[in-house]
Amino acid sequence: MEGRPSNSQSEHVELLRKIREFTRAIVEDLSNGRSPTILIDRFRNYCKNPIANCYCSSDKSYGKEILTLRRESHVHRLDVLLRVLLIVQQLLHENKHGSKRDIYYMHPSVFSDQSVVDRAINDICLLMQCSRHNLNVVSVGKGLVMGWIRFSEGRKIFDCINCPNSANPVPVYVEEVKDIISGAHYILVVEKESVFQRLANDQFCNKNRCIVLTGRGYPDIPTRRFLRLLIEKLCLPAYCLVDCDPYGFDILTIYRFGSMKMAYDAKYMRVPEIRWLGAFPSDSENYSLPEQCLLPLTAEDKRKIEAMLLRCYLQREVTPWRLELKLMLQKGVKFEIEALSVHSLSFLSESYIPSKIQGGVHI
Dihedrals φ, ψ of 117, to 5°? Predict the structure, then answer.
């Protein structure tokens, strides 16, 4: 764990007050022989309503989960929640930040698995009505950024403009990012580090005056929050390039709509402005990919696609995305972004991406 400059002092004071009131209420219940009852709001960013007649994007809870010591299955969960809450209180008091992994190793025999800590952190955010970064709990960043942008994070300055094709880590303390300057025309989000590096090798940002981000697979919280911040501050169009498979499509939806696990915090991370640039199932024919580049969908792939097709936001907000996903299922094949290199090593950076953006071939 490490110390960092304080966020808003008033926010810390208010959060510490909420923690004290919460723990005091539990102690009073136990002192009076009552079993504490804890109500946790439930959120979701989609449902499986086939007619999409729902309000999943309203940022309102759709019910409450009741935790009580009367249920044996809840005892351990409440024990973990209170232990993590005590650690969070210490972080706030000492104005320090810690990762989820730091917290896990403070009581590994009790927590038993990282997912148990993750769930407790989400529960605390819901109970305290705050975001994870308000708890001074940070993710270990894995995202990368390059291109026409300069910004500062605390006392550190990231000057990507001087070397726009060099990778820089996405800032972990996104709330401390300021003084953002950019001469970019657009933002491109790519699923994979291998594609990111291909673009860097091809001097893509130099030639196209843009910002390129990658979450290196499923994006972490800093990458999503940083992208959200760039969109808000720079008002640039944003495009997303993912593999033509169900997992690439799932990553695309997380950038635009948020994740189910953190639906309560989606409004701070989702990017409804983002456009799907590719790779589309229809691209296999449009770009004459040979059969050797196409892989058959597995049974698991098909199950995942069928489940995603039921998500209400695909019917309600992005019907063209749903049609492309149905086409993937009908064709029964998938392919990686790199398959486009069958035409030439730099086909992606010199032809595919520029022509799609300039021609408005995105949805």
Answer: -65, -45
User: Quick check: 40 and 67 in contact, CB under 8 A?
Assistant: yes
* pLDDT at position 297 over 50: yes
Averaged pLDDT for residues 6-18:
78
Number of Cβ atoms within 10 Å of the Cβ of 155: 7
Pairing of strands 187-190, 211-214: parallel
Q: How do strand 238-241 and strand 275-278 relate by DSSP bridges? A: parallel
What pLDDT sits at residue 68? 86
Burial class (CB in 10 A: 0-12, 13-18, 19+), 234: middle
Query: What is the Cα–Cα distance from 314 to 35, expressed in whole angstroms?
Result: 43
- Tokens (6 digits) for 322: 């749903």
- CA angle, corner 320, sides to 56 and 294, nearest 5? 115
* Residue 176 vs residues 112, 222, 225, 258, 296: alpha-carbon distances, Å: 33, 12, 12, 22, 45
Task: Give the whole-angstrom CA distance, residue 268 versus residue 177.
Answer: 15
Both tokens assigned to 3: 């110390």
The model's pLDDT over 211-234, given as tens digits with 9 standing for 90+, comes to 999 999 999 999 999 999 999 999
105 is catalytic: yes
Q: Residue 157: in which H helix or E strand, if any?
A: strand 156-159
| Catalytic-role residue among 46, 55, 62, 105 | 105
pLDDT of residue 4: 46
* Contact between residue 308 and residue 246 where contact means Cβ atoms under 8 Å apart: yes
Percent with pLDDT over 70 in the chain: 97
Residue 8, pLDDT > 70, answer no
- Tell me, what amino acid is at 318? V
For the cut 80, the answer to whether the pLDDT of residue 51 exceeds it is no
End-to-end distance of the chain based on CA atoms, in angstroms? Answer: 42
- In the block, which residue shows the tokens 């993710």? 139
